[in-house]
Write a structure and sequence with these properties.
This protein is an alpha/beta fold. It has a single domain, classed as P-loop containing nucleotide triphosphate hydrolases (Rossmann fold), CATH 3.40.50.300. Helix content is 31%, strand content 19%. The protein is built from five helices and seven strands. It has a seven-stranded mixed beta sheet, with helices on both faces. Strand 3 and strand 4 form a beta hairpin. The longest helix is centred in the middle third of the chain and has 17 residues. The C terminus is likely disordered.
Length: 222
């Protein structure tokens, strides 16, 4: 299967939602804790090394980054969260911005929540998943750095996340293991994400959620 994301091209980087492109078409967003491997995951999924900036210093990049796929479809790299060294005012700013984005962005077709497979489902991960559930948006829990675990631990992490999601009433959330250093069997994942973007159904209407001021923003992941 050809990779539909190889057309990704940098469009813009902005500090506020007002900097985003017009709220039309469809977009797929990526969010996650700093150091969870978000930028590396985007680079691997697109097959374009260096497309999303990676850094060994969490907290360095604090912007929304947009990549166009074509005139009507795009990827959005959201600022990472949970990094304590980022000033509190910045964390609060991104908490508000991410809440607004998840609640109000009509073109948002789905959210990929990046989680370190060794430390999944932190509080802010749950807030993101709850915000998606409130809008009826598809969400994917992408368990990165799976190469850091042996095969049995990988399966244990996968099943544990699925169990916790099911117990919380979020059993329809997709869960996938992922490693940027061993990008195997990506066709299925790319196909699922492409379906969110290109299927001919309108994104769900926005609704108010309790996540608006509760998701602290911080750095882009490394």
């Amino acid at each position: 299967m050809s990779n539909p994301f190889t057309r990704a091209r940098f469009r813009l980087s902005g500090e506020n939602l007002s900097h985003l492109p017009a709220d039309s078409g469809r977009e797929l967003a990526f969010a996650g804790r700093s150091n969870a491997g978000k930028s590396s995951a985007i680079n691997t999924l697109t097959g374009i090394g260096g497309l999303a900036r990676t850094s060994r210093t969490p907290g360095r990049t604090q912007h929304l980054v947009v990549f166009d796929l074509d005139e009507d479809h795009r990827l959005v790299d959201l600022p990472g969260y949970g990094y304590a060294k980022v000033p509190r005012a910045m964390r609060e700013h991104w908490g508000r911005e991410l809440g607004r984005y998840l609640n109000e962005r009509a073109s948002l077709a789905g959210l990929v929540v990046i989680m370190d497979s060794r430390h999944p489902l932190k509080d802010n991960d749950w807030l993101l998943l709850e915000a998606c559930a409130s809008r009826g948006l598809p969400a994917l829990a992408l368990l990165t750095k799976a190469d850091k675990l042996n095969r049995s631990d990988q399966q244990r992490a996968l099943q544990q996340v699925r169990k916790e999601l099911a117990a919380a009433g979020a059993g329809d959330t997709a869960v996938r293991l992922f490693s940027s250093s061993k990008p195997e069997r990506l066709d299925r994942l790319r196909g699922e994400l492409a379906d969110w973007l290109w299927r001919q159904v309108p994104p769900p209407a926005s609704v108010a959620t309790t996540a608006t001021a509760a998701t602290p923003g911080a750095a882009e992941s490394g």
